[in-house]
């Protein structure tokens, strides 16, 4: 497919990387030669210097035959105008990143249809939604939902005290007995592998698990993650930073009956937050003011979420929160270098607005056979939900005879109302929804496998 | 202060009063009660005074904040003075102090009376009493705003000074249109009640007088025994419902008439008003069951009527609540302080202010436990301005201060402890009847002239919500 991306910023670069790896024909437009050179040197893409909202530049980039148009510059107006132009050129799928609530919020005069945009993506909202999802799952640092939330994809970090530490997957299989889940991947030292029966889970690993929603409590129990307190009192969340992300998280957690405490250092902003929030306690303080954190009960916090504008503040405050007893800490981190560093320091999960936005965009442009998709933190692996199409050659043949691509694994299949953790003898049927974990190199092969 | 402009507008308001003084004449002629001459004379005096002021005082300046306060306060003073003329001319009331007390009680929708024998008076005089209620209920100034174009500029000052409550709703961009809408709703509700009362057997004249007194939350009746004289459960029910409605913000009635009934429930003040009404009614019914009334239906009928009558500061009576258990009387005294909703015709401190005071106290306590927490006082999900909150705290302090000082003065004028306090709250909250010697079956005739003057001022301050009147006593108000 021909894909045109406007804006070689963080999101744009990341999208180029993913889409070009999958063998798509990607053209990148940016005003800055330097950004373009960086992308062209490292990625297999064509760079064109110029204004993405100018028809001349777009024609030069070959917009006429383009299938997917993605505008992710820093300027809302440029993105919207570029999408309007793309519509005139007859591009089928148009995606724009828009930050301002005026355009992206519901009920506005200008709907996205009028603006010629198929998908409006707001990185702040995307990251807030992701944080909320993780905050609601005890113990997991990464969560994705498939098949309307029936199948959950969860990432757990394994500490030395974890009961599954130093077990091979085969041994784990013996213990888990009736619990139905599958360990699809292990990330160790920045490398992601699909484990086999004799691979050992080590302390410091992150493991990724597929399971049905019903089996979640059993997994929590097995991993000794179940927190007895959460059952007794309403879960308590501390949020540091009352920007748009913080406010959205607070609103969402409030709705889920969390006891939310939102901290911001700007008094005027605090008053605005207090006006918008109902039950949340808004606290005017610096995030590093330990006395205030302790006074307001940070040691009873089930989750501490740092979402200020500053990566370093987020990481430091998350560590402070952990030191003073918060059970879990989440931090928003923008810089890619810090993203990989933070977990080793002891922050439970780092979420990048860039990845969240890119993930949402990828999910959208790949729709079709791919029903849903998630990108995995700290690696390039992806999880796809695929519909087995009609008349597919793979129907009715045991999986072990199908030559499923290496570097990918089927985590779960859902047939109407029943689900299955597949084995080599399982058969696929038409209309099944299959959730697949795939390393970057295997993505294209997986998609071809199901065609 | 621009004295000339103030006097000119006061002159215009007097012309308006002269027109109002002519309306009882048809009733006088119909009933042949002989008071027509008194009304004509009173109208001519008002006309002459009004024309003199209007023509002789010319000013090109525009209204400012200060003139607004002066016009409203003195305007109400003038109305009480000139509105008292028919009582004096017709001989219905002999003493000028009594006549002014009665007129002020009418215009401020208080309903306290110095008359011992009502039924013998000319019908047109009784109609005038009810009409003063009705004009004062929605506000004479607000009515003038709708009619007199010269008040257009700076009219919001006048509007705010007269409409009860901590803040005034503006339904339309132009203040004249807002005033017209509010009066429109008021007229509509009044005639709805007239119709329903006539169905219950009242004649047009009586129905009109009672509807005027109900919608204005006044309380003057044409009978000695008030609404109780009709002894009809149907009439009691109709009056109870309309008293309750008159205690609601008229902006909400306007929304409801446009088909947006849910606005009632979305309004937090209304919910609290409903809660207070239902709660007090329930408790009083509980206290009266078996002690005062044996039949539950009788209990419901009389207890709910009296609760709503006191809470909305109407002051109609169907039962002597002084024979009720002490605790029930105490509840009624509490309701006297609360009053109706903001933007209604009711008096008192207003439900919105009470609600915000509670919330403010709650936030204060919360701040002691969480010193760094930022928490705002909200009404209906919207944060209340700090200035509004401060003015409410000030209002509460002034209200209590005036209550204490005026009670002291009433005790000095010779009333006993209960009667002194009750007389002050009954007038300051614009209710009408109090307790003790000014209770529901008594009247204010026995109070000394000094006491009547104090109570007259209380009524004025209560109706104009203290500040409008009190600023006039501030020396810097009069300086340039």
Write the layout of secondary structure elements.
The complex is a heterodimer of chains A (451) and B (480).
Chain A: E1 2-6, H1 10-21, E2 25-30, H2 33-42, E3 46-49, H3 55-60, E4 68-71, H4 76-88, E5 93-97, H5 101-104, E6 119-121, H6 123-135, E7 142-146, E8 151-157, H7 169-176, E9 181-188, E10 191-193, E11 206-212, H8 216-222, H9 228-232, E12 236-240, H10 244-255, E13 259-264, H11 267-276, E14 281-284, H12 290-295, E15 303-306, H13 311-323, E16 329-332, H14 336-345, E17 349-351, H15 353-365, E18 370-375, E19 382-387, E20 408-415, E21 418-420, E22 433-438, H16 443-450
Chain B: H1 3-22, H2 24-31, H3 36-56, H4 65-83, H5 85-90, H6 96-107, H7 123-138, H8 140-147, H9 155-162, H10 175-199, H11 204-215, H12 233-246, H13 250-257, H14 262-266, H15 268-288, H16 296-311, H17 326-338, H18 351-369, E1 373-374, E2 378-379, E3 382-383, H19 386-412, H20 417-428, H21 449-463, H22 467-470, H23 475-478
Antiparallel strand pairs in B: 2-3
Helix pairs in contact in B: 1-3, 1-4, 2-3, 2-7, 4-6, 4-9, 6-7, 6-21, 7-11, 8-10, 10-11, 10-12, 10-13, 11-12, 12-16, 15-16, 15-17, 18-19, 19-20, 19-21, 20-21
Tell me what you see in this structure:
Chain A is α/β, with parallel strands linked by helices and 451 residues long. Chain A folds into four domains: 2-121, Rossmann fold; 133-228, 2-Layer Sandwich (Alpha-Beta Plaits), CATH 3.30.70.1450; 234-351, NAD(P)-binding Rossmann-like Domain (Rossmann fold), CATH 3.40.50.720; 356-450, 2-Layer Sandwich (Alpha-Beta Plaits), CATH 3.30.70. Helices cover 33% and strands 25% of the residues of chain A. Chain A has 16 helices and 22 strands. In chain A, the strands form four sheets. Chain A has a six-stranded parallel β-sheet, with helices on both faces. In chain A, strands 14-13-12-15-16-17 form a six-stranded parallel β-sheet, with helices on both faces. Chain A has a five-stranded antiparallel β-sheet with strand order 7-8-11-9-10. In chain A, strand 4, helix 4 and strand 5 (93-97) form a beta-alpha-beta unit. The longest helix of chain A has 13 residues, at 76-88. Chain A is globular and about 60 Å long. The model of chain A has no long low-confidence stretch (mean pLDDT 81). By secondary structure, chain B is mostly helical. Chain B is 65% helix and 1% strand. Chain B is built from 23 helices and three strands. A two-stranded antiparallel ribbon of chain B has the order 2-3. In chain B, helix 6 (96-107) runs parallel beside helix 21 and helix 12 (233-246) runs parallel beside helix 16. The mean pLDDT of chain B is 89. Strand 14 (281-284) of chain A pairs antiparallel with strand 1 (373-374) of chain B, so a sheet runs across the interface.
């Amino acid at each position: 497919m021909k894909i045109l991306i406007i804006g070689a910023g963080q999101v744009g670069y990341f999208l180029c990387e993913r889409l070009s790896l999958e063998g798509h024909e990607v053209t990148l437009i940016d005003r800055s030669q330097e950004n373009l050179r960086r992308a062209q040197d490292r990625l297999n893409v064509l760079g064109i210097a110029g204004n993405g909202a100018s028809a001349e530049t777009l024609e030069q980039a070959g917009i006429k035959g383009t299938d997917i148009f993605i505008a992710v510059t820093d300027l809302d107006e440029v993105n919207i105008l570029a999408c309007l132009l793309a519509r005139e050129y007859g591009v089928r799928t148009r995606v724009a990143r828009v930050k301002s609530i005026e355009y992206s919020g519901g009920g506005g005069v200008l709907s996205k249809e009028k603006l010629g945009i198929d998908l409006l993506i707001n990185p702040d909202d995307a990251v807030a939604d992701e944080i909320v999802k993780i905050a609601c799952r005890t113990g997991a640092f990464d969560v994705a939902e498939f098949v309307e939330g029936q199948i959950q994809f969860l990432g757990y970090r394994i500490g030395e005290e974890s009961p599954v530490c130093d077990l091979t997957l085969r041994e784990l299989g013996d213990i888990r007995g009736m619990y139905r889940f599958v360990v699809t991947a292990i990330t160790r030292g920045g490398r992601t592998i699909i484990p086999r029966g004799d691979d050992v889970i080590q302390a410091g690993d992150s493991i990724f698990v597929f399971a049905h929603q019903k089996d979640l409590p059993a997994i929590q129990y097995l991993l000794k993650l179940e927190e007895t307190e959460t059952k007794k009192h309403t879960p308590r969340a501390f949020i540091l930073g009352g920007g748009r992300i913080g406010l959205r998280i607070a609103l969402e957690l409030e709705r889920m009956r969390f006891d939310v405490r939102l901290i911001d250092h700007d008094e005027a902003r605090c008053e605005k937050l207090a006006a918008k929030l109902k039950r949340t306690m808004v606290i005017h303080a610096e995030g590093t003011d330990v006395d205030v954190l302790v006074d307001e009960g940070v040691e009873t916090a089930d989750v501490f979420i740092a979402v200020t504008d500053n990566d370093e503040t987020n990481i430091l405050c998350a560590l402070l929160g952990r030191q003073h007893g918060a059970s879990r800490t989440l931090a928003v981190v923008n810089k890619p270098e810090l993203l990989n560093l933070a977990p080793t320091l002891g922050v439970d999960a780092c979420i990048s607005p860039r990845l969240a936005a890119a993930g949402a965009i990828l999910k959208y442009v790949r729709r079709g056979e791919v029903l849903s998709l998630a990108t995995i933190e700290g690696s390039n692996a992806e999880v796809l939900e695929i519909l087995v199409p009609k008349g597919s050659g793979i129907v009715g043949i045991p999986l072990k005879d199908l030559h499923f691509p290496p570097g990918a694994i089927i985590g779960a299949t859902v047939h109407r109302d029943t689900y299955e953790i597949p084995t080599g003898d399982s058969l696929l049927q038409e209309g099944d929804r299959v959730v697949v974990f795939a390393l970057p190199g295997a993505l294209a092969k997986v998609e071809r496998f199901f065609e | 202060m621009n004295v000339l402009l103030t006097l000119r507008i006061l002159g215009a308001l007097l012309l308006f009063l002269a027109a109002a003084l002519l309306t009882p004449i048809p009733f006088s002629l119909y009933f042949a009660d002989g008071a027509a001459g008194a009304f004509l004379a009173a109208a001519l005096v008002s006309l002459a005074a009004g024309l003199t002021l209007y023509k002789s005082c010319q000013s090109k300046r525009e209204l400012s904040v200060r003139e607004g306060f002066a016009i409203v306060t003195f305007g109400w003073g003038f109305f009480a003075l000139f509105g008292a003329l028919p009582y004096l001319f017709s001989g219905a009331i002999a003493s000028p102090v009594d006549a002014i007390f009665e007129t002020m009680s009418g215009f401020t929708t208080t309903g306290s009376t110095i008359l011992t024998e009502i039924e013998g008076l000319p019908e047109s005089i009784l109609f005038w009493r009810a009409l003063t209620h009705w004009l004062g209920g929605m506000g004479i100034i607000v009515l003038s705003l709708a009619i007199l174009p010269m008040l257009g500029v700076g009219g919001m000052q006048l509007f705010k000074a007269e409409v009860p409550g901590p803040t005034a709703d503006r339904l339309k961009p132009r203040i004249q249109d807002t005033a017209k809408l509010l009066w429109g709703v008021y007229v509509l509700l009044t005639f709805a009640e007239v119709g329903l009362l006539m169905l219950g057997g009242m004649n047009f004249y009586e129905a009109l007088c009672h509807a005027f007194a109900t919608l204005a939350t006044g309380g003057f009746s044409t009978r000695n025994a008030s609404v109780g004289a009709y002894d009809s459960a149907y009439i009691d029910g109709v009056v109870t419902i309309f008293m309750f409605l008159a205690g609601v913000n008229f902006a909400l009635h306007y929304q409801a008439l446009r088909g947006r009934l849910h606005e009632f429930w979305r309004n937090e003040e209304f919910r609290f008003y409903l809660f207070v009404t239902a709660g007090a009614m329930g408790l009083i019914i509980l206290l009266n069951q078996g002690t005062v009334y044996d039949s539950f239906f009788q209990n419901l009928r009389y207890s709910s009527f009296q609760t709503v009558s006191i809470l909305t500061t109407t002051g109609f009576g169907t039962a002597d609540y002084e024979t009720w258990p002490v605790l029930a009387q105490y509840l009624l005294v509490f309701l006297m302080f609360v009053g109706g909703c903001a933007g209604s015709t009711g008096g008192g401190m207003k439900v919105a202010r009470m609600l915000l005071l509670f919330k403010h106290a709650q936030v204060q306590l919360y701040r002691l436990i969480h010193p760094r927490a930022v928490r705002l006082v909200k009404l209906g999900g919207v944060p209340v301005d700090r200035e509004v909150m401060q003015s409410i705290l000030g209002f509460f302090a002034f209200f209590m201060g005036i209550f204490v000082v005026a009670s002291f003065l009433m005790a000095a004028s010779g009333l006993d402890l209960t009667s002194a306090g009750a007389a002050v709250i009954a007038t300051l909250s614009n209710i009408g009847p109090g307790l003790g010697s000014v209770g529901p079956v008594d009247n204010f005739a026995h109070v000394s002239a000094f006491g009547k003057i104090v109570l007259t001022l209380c009524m004025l301050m209560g109706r104009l919500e203290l500040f409008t009147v009190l600023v006039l006593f501030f020396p810097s108000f009069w300086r340039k």
